[in-house]
Structures are given as structure tokens and as C-alpha cells.
């Protein structure tokens, strides 16, 4: 990230932080930006960490930017995995700080085209794919204990999963379920023999 871009982001965050403070407390509303070595930390007026940017290779572009909740647990993280200046990994954390969702850009786009949801042990439980790059999921895989148990498809291009193939222990499709009204509940089931 260029120095001017960092300053622009800091100015934006500063104005946003000032806007949420009472008018009679303007002096205390100024966030503080610390830069030391390869890290840059932005604190709000109450000295809570808001953002931490890390430049691991010293090129003045952050490879990892973590955003924090007011209670100091991570909210989300953006990562430049291949260090080309473009974010290609997005991480979402639950309020306890546990990583629950990871998005990646497999086609070098500016947004994720693959999302992976993780269970409490960190194992994959669901993968959602955006095959056409429109920002909506087109298909999903449901995993349990390291095994593919179902596949879901958004057959109308609206991001709503309307068809699901359920797999048995041997990996074969045992039934097809459909959600004709798009309410997220699969109402119809057809067994496959």
C-alpha cells in the first residue's frame, strides 16, 4: 500500500472516529496512529486498537491488515498472500476471536470467489464457490468429518441454493432435495437408487 494511500485511509478513519464523538469532546476524538518497524497500529480516542497493518517484506505495502472490535477481538483480516499489492484472502472472526470463514480469490479478482466455513475445531464444514464472478455463490459443498456429504446448487443465478445432492457414506448420491420457493428449506426429496 502506498504511503499516500495509507495516509488517505488514516484520514478517512480519523474523520469517521471524530464523527461518532460528542461535539463537546472533540479533543479526545482524535485517533492515534503508531508506526514501528513493520507494523502500523491505529487506536481510537479511547486507546482501543482499531486496525493493525503489517508489512512483512518492508516494501511499504501491508501484507496483512486486521480490523478489531471495540472489545479488542479481531473482526476481520485482509491478506495479500502473494505480495503483489492486491488482497487475495479475507478472514472473518466470530466475537470470541475464533476464525470461522476464509475467502480467497482463485482468479486474481478483487473479491473472493471461494468461501470456506470452519467448524469449532478449524475443519472445513462448507465451501461456497462463485464460478461466474458476480459476487453470489453458484454452488456449495457440505463437509463432515473430512467427507463430502452434500452439494448445493443455485440454479437460478440468484445465490439461493435450490437443489441439493446428498451423498451416502460411500460417496454416491442417495437423494436429491429441492427448494422450489427459495426460502432456504429443502421441501422436496427424491431418493436415488
Rounded to the nearest angstrom, the radius of gyration is: 21 Å
Please identify the top-level CATH class.
Alpha Beta
| Oligomeric category | single chain
Q: What's the helical proportion of residues?
A: under 10%
In order across it, which strands form the biggest sheet? 1-2-3-4-5-6-7-8-9-10-11-12-13-14
Number of discrete helical segments: 1
- CATH architecture tag: Alpha-Beta Complex
Structural class: mainly beta
Inertia-based shape: elongated
Low-confidence stretches: 1-27
Q: Spell out the helices and strands N to C.
A: HEEEEEEEEEEEEEE
> What is the strand tally?
14
Biggest sheet character: 14 strands, antiparallel
Q: How many structurally independent domains?
A: 1
- CATH fold-level assignment: Outer Surface Protein A, domain 3
What portion of the residues fall into strands of 2 or more residues? 35-45%
Average pLDDT: 85
Q: Termini distance? A: 56 Å
Amino acid at each position: 500500500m502506498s504511503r499516500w494511500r495509507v495516509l488517505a485511509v488514516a484520514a478517512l478513519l480519523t474523520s469517521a472516529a471524530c464523527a461518532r464523538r460528542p461535539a463537546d469532546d472533540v479533543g479526545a476524538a482524535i485517533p492515534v496512529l503508531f508506526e514501528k518497524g513493520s507494523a502500523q497500529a491505529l487506536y481510537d480516542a479511547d486507546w482501543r486498537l482499531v486496525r493493525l497493518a503489517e508489512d512483512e517484506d518492508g516494501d511499504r505495502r501491508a501484507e496483512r491488515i486486521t480490523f478489531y472490535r471495540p472489545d479488542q477481538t479481531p473482526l476481520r483480516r485482509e491478506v495479500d498472500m502473494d505480495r503483489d499489492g492486491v488482497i487475495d484472502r479475507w478472514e472473518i472472526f466470530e466475537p470470541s476471536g475464533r476464525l470461522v470463514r476464509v475467502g480467497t480469490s482463485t482468479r486474481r479478482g478483487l473479491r473472493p470467489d471461494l468461501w470456506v466455513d470452519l467448524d469449532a475445531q478449524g475443519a472445513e464444514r462448507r465451501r461456497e464457490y462463485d464460478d461466474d464472478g458476480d459476487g453470489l455463490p453458484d454452488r456449495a459443498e457440505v463437509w463432515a468429518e473430512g467427507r463430502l456429504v452434500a452439494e448445493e446448487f443455485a440454479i437460478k443465478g440468484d445465490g439461493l441454493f435450490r437443489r441439493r445432492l446428498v451423498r451416502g457414506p460411500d460417496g454416491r448420491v442417495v437423494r436429491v432435495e429441492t427448494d422450489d420457493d427459495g426460502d432456504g428449506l429443502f421441501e422436496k426429496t427424491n431418493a436415488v437408487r
